[in-house]
TrEMBL record:
UniProt-listed InterPro entries: AAA+_ATPase (IPR003593), ABC_transporter-like_ATP-bd (IPR003439), ABC_transporter-like_CS (IPR017871), P-loop_NTPase (IPR027417)
Organism: Halomonas piscis
PANTHER family xref list: ABC TRANSPORTER ATP-BINDING PROTEIN, HEMIN IMPORT ATP-BINDING PROTEIN HMUV
Domain ABC transporter stretches: 4-239
Alphabetized UniProt keyword annotations: ATP-binding, Nucleotide-binding
Protein name: ABC transporter ATP-binding protein
GO MF term (any one): ATP binding
Gene3D superfamilies given in the database record: P-loop containing nucleotide triphosphate hydrolases
Amino acid sequence: MGVLSATGLVIDVPGRQSGRPLDLAVEPGQVWGVLGPNGAGKTTLLHTLAGLIPARAGEIRLDETPLARLRRRQIAQKLGLVFQERTDGFPATVAETAMIGRHPYLSCWQRQSAKDAQRVRAALERLDVAHLGDRLTHTLSGGERQRVAMATLLTQDPAVWLVDEPTNHLDLHHQSAVMGLMHDRAAAGRALMLCLHDLNLAARWCSHVLLLYPDGEACWGEARAMLEPGALERLYRQRLSVVEVDGAPVFVPINP
Ligand SMILES: Nc1ncnc2c1ncn2[C@@H]1O[C@H](COP(=O)(O)OP(=O)(O)OP(=O)(O)O)[C@@H](O)[C@H]1O
């Protein structure tokens, strides 16, 4: 049983017949990529696993405890989520936003410590946004905002990282840097699940893959076995050419 596990889980995608129940466990050290076409339910799955929306059926366990039995704060001490899109609830600087990652560990009136501030600084540096610490987040570019969101999750550094499109808005260098961070956190014993649109990032960085089909079908397993060109062509209804670079497959869409 992994640090995050789903048993008989059916996600609630509006208007869809119930799909294949998911039975999977995300173990420490694993990086799961969730792949599927637009509307397949990737975000819905992540939000369900985070306890933000109810499932149609099944059970989710976090560290062996049913999610339904945990209070929100207990969940936030073990699990963090980066949303695909962000809205600013209220004006906040980059440093203040990253500090939100420490809130699950602080009691109501407890002030953040020097150690918390140090974690924020280190996270901002790791995500290459330390120079933006005093800027209001709504003034940032899309890629800068994405890196601040990742820095906030790194400040939280929970056992389970759920990230909806980690490389959204990022240039090539920062895509690679963020995926490298995911790899490092997995090596440090975290369990990660990432929604990805880029097959090549999945092939390069994921240990496990879950393929979600628009009709609710799904299959999952080790990345090497799941990233089979025929299966991916059916998933995306897109012909693919495959070459190998640096020991990993590179998928290139081709026209008929
Ligand atoms: N609140 C809602 N009301 C109605 N339909 C919804 C709602 N939320 C999600 N859906 C639908 O559920 C389906 C799954 O959405 P979801 O965002 O999980 O897909 P996704 O795989 O993450 O897609 P994308 O790749 O475009 O991000 C979509 O068809 C979406 O329109």
